[in-house]
Amino acid sequence: MHAWDLARATGQPSRLDPDLVHHAFATAQVVAASLRSEGHLAPPLPAPRGADEQTRMLAFLGRTA
Fold first, then answer.
1. Is residue 20 exposed (0-12), middle (13-18) or buried (19+ Cβ within 10 Å)?
2. Residue that wins the pLDDT comparison between 1 and 52
3. Is the pLDDT of residue 2 over 80?
4. Cβ pair 56, 25 in contact under 8 A
5. CB contact at 8 A, 58 and 42
6. How far apart are CA 49 and CA 9, in angstroms?
7. Rounded alpha-carbon distances, angstroms, from residue 59 to 6, 11, 41, 43
8. Under 8 Å CB-to-CB from 13, ≥6 apart: which residues?
9. Which of 11, 35, 53, 56 is geometrically suited to a Cys-Cys bond with 41, CB 3.0 to 4.6 A?
10. Global pTM value
11. Phi and psi dihedrals of 34, rounded to 5?
12. On the CB side of 29, how many CA atoms lie within 13 Å of its CA?
């Protein structure tokens, strides 16, 4: 996630490796509840219909692509 954040903040390409996204999304789904309850993670956003996995992960983590 931080790689995407930094890429966006600096105007760099923000497309992440699909395998990395897959594993990061799976991990995020396990740890998100505790991070949200501690105020470290934004609430999830709805992902657009037909969104790819990276976009779904970003929405789940409260970010917009």
1. exposed
2. 52
3. yes
4. yes
5. no
6. 26
7. 17, 20, 12, 9
8. 7
9. 35
10. 0.90
11. -70, -40
12. 8
65's tokens: 């692509």
Beta carbons of 65 and 45 less than 8 angstroms apart: no
Number of alpha carbons in the 13 Å side-chain half-sphere of residue 48 = 8
Condensed to tens digits (0 to 9), the pLDDT of residues 18-36 reads: 999 999 999 999 999 999 9
- For 26-65, what is each residue's pLDDT tens digit? 999 999 999 999 999 999 999 999 999 999 999 999 998 7
Residue 65 pLDDT: 74
CA distance 30 to 4: 20
- DSSP 3-state of 43: coil
Residue linked to tokens 């991990």: 27
Q: Which two tokens stand for residue 53?
A: 């996995």
